[in-house]
Design brief:
Number of helices: 2
Low-confidence stretches: 1-10, 380-393
Strand order of the largest sheet: 1-2-3-4-5-7-8-9-10-13-14-16-17-18-19-20
Strand content: over 45%
Oligomer: single chain
Helix content: under 10%
Number of strands: 20
Length: 393
């Protein structure tokens, strides 16, 4: 749970802002037996690391770590370099979900580690909206082991290495924060994966492809209406693939917005329930303040997707829609949302429709720490009042 997706938190460029965040997300299905669905990690971004041109980005979960050391102007005035290191337990877990049923007999545990080298280039330094290009090479090694319920006659995929190349263009972007109030992005990406193994596994009915190619694009807009103070987040993501397999396909499901750089959310569904070789995903999130200070808010979510399935994981119908609603409490230092979600087209044992509840939380630790230890008055008690004021202002 705590490692899922953290390897995809890396940005399309070096983040110039100092951040110290705690992120927690969890979805609980109200019926069925899904895989664990959630994340919990500490996120640090520290520019001017040791008063140099270095930027340290670090995401730490209890069983996993993802890091990158960014070197500004390493290859020119507008070209930066990033050196990444990531790995840990349960990073490469695989959960087989077929027509709404979690098949533990065909699921297994995976561990992994990787190193990466990235080049970031800013094409329009004079523009208010940056256009960044990225080229990233990743060397990843995965090992696998059986779970307690993996079928004895189910052959695990062999341990193997994967070399990936990712390149893309991003105009604009969004901060790596929960419910951003202002953002826009247009981006296009390619990722190719090349593996050291080429084999069949499972019951002899599935294959690890020697290479896979993913192509996707994203458009998003986040904005806060100045008079009403309503906020909305609108996103459109679409992708296709060539020579895809279970380890390189697009997987949609659950409402976990910080689980990946481009989360493929479907409220009410299991995490990664839908495996698609091609997809289009449209999402809208809308926040309405309920009090004058905008601490308490109503949050509504609607997501719909059209997919073509990975062979072997097909199901009736190509449309999937999820809706959700929740109460969001937010201040400068804290955002917490408790909500309910309904997967309209999710297949379950009693027909279509699935219910879940969820928790999302973000703590801006730098803001809270400053309020506690650097209060406006020297009294330590005032410091405690300040930190709770930071959570309530």
């Amino acid at each position: 749970m705590v490692g899922c997706g953290i390897t995809f938190c890396s940005m399309g460029q070096i983040d110039p802002f100092s951040r110290e965040l705690i992120q927690v997300g969890y979805n609980q299905a109200l019926h069925g037996h899904p895989p664990l669905s959630g994340y919990a990690f500490y996120y640090l971004n520290k520019p001017n690391f040791f008063n140099t041109n270095l930027t340290l980005r670090l995401a730490v979960a209890p069983t996993y770590m993802d890091s990158e050391l960014g070197i500004s102007h390493a290859l020119g005035e507008y070209t930066d370099l990033g050196i990444g290191l990531a790995g840990g337990g349960f990073a490469d877990n695989y959960a087989e979900i077929r027509q709404g049923k979690y098949l533990q007999s065909e699921s297994f545990t995976g561990y992994g580690g990787e190193v990466s080298l990235s080049i970031y280039h800013l094409f329009n330094p004079e523009s208010k909206i940056p256009l960044n290009g990225v080229i990233r090479g990743i060397a990843h090694y995965s090992t696998y082991s059986r779970d307690d319920r993996t079928a004895p006659d189910f052959a695990l995929v062999k341990d193997h290495g994967t070399f990936s190349v990712r390149t893309g263009l991003r105009w604009g972007g969004r901060e790596p924060t929960l419910f951003p109030s202002l953002a826009m992005e247009l981006s296009a990406w390619y990722e190719g994966s090349f593996r050291t193994e080429n084999e069949t596994y499972g019951f002899g009915d599935r294959k690890l492809e020697p290479q896979s190619h993913l192509f996707w694009g994203a458009a998003l807009l986040a904005y806060t209406l100045p008079e009403w103070k309503h906020s909305f987040y609108l996103s459109l993501t679409a992708g296709t693939s060539v020579e895809e397999d279970r380890f390189s396909t697009y997987r949609l499901g659950a409402l976990l917005p910080m689980v990946a750089e481009y989360p493929l959310s479907l409220p009410g569904y299991y995490y990664q329930e839908i495996s698609a070789k091609d997809f289009g995903l449209l999402g809208l999130n809308y926040i309405v303040p309920l009090d004058e200070k905008q601490r308490w808010n109503f949050n509504g979510t609607l997501t719909t997707a059209v997919v073509s399935y990975l062979p072997g994981l097909e199901q009736p119908g190509n449309w999937h829609t999820g809706v959700g609603a929740g109460i969001l409490y937010k201040t400068r230092s804290l955002k917490v949302m408790v909500g309910y979600a309904y997967g309209v087209d999710a297949i379950r044992s009693d027909g279509r429709g699935a219910h879940s509840i969820g928790l999302l939380m973000q703590v801006d630790w730098a803001q809270a720490y400053d309020a506690l230890f650097n209060p406006e008055t020297p009294s330590r008690w005032r410091g405690w009042q300040s930190i709770f004021g930071a959570f309530g202002s």
